[in-house]
Write a structure and sequence with these properties.
With about 180 residues, the chain is of the alpha+beta class. It is built from six helices and six strands; from the N terminus they run ααββββααβαβα.
Length: about 180
């Protein structure tokens, strides 16, 4: 791990040198960059410990408006994600904070937003075997904000529904409007 930090620090130093960025504001920048990337990519990089609890409830469980930050895999600039994650229990539930932890685990892999949405819903299906699972993500991709379309208010929305229950009339709308 120390080698990774040193290499990242060296790359940041070379970048600053090549772009003639120097002075007191840049003196510790290579170390800060290495620390930032180390913390983002490796802190809590293991799959979270997910404990389940028995339940007789079979009504939807939905977490909404969880904000988390990731990075675009194409440009390595920030992406602000807003998550809505839900499932319909079939005998067991997870601790509520685990929905956010599952999302944040997958963000560390720098996925496409489309793949992130699917990975979260499929994880819930595998972990809980619920009647259905769903994930909706709205992402503000700073690569689109600062380059490309240069729109400060553009959000990209992706959704994924799994399980038979989400084929029933009204269930998708209920999730989207929760």
């Amino acid at each position: 791990m120390a080698d990774v930090l040193r290499n990242t620090e060296q790359l940041a130093r070379e970048f600053l040198t090549q772009h003639n960025l120097k002075g007191p504001n840049f003196e510790e920048t290579p170390q800060r960059v290495a620390k930032l990337w180390d913390r983002f990519l490796y802190e809590d990089a293991e799959y979270p410990n997910i404990k389940t609890f028995p339940t007789a409830n079979n009504e939807p469980v939905v977490m909404k408006n969880h904000i988390a930050w990731g990075y675009c895999p194409h440009h390595l600039v920030p992406v602000q994600y807003c998550f809505r994650i839900g499932y319909i229990p079939e005998g067991k539930v997870v601790g509520l904070s685990k929905l956010a932890r599952i999302a944040e685990y997958h963000i560390k892999k720098l996925p496409l937003q489309e793949d992130l949405t699917v990975a979260i819903a499929e994880d819930l299906m595998e972990l809980l075997h619920p009647r259905g699972a769903a994930c909706m993500i709205e992402g503000v991709h700073f690569c689109a904000v600062i380059r490309g379309i240069k729109s400060g208010d553009v959000k990209f929305k992706t959704t994924c529904f799994r399980g038979e229950h989400y084929l029933l009339a009204g269930t998708v709308e209920e999730f989207l409007n929760a």
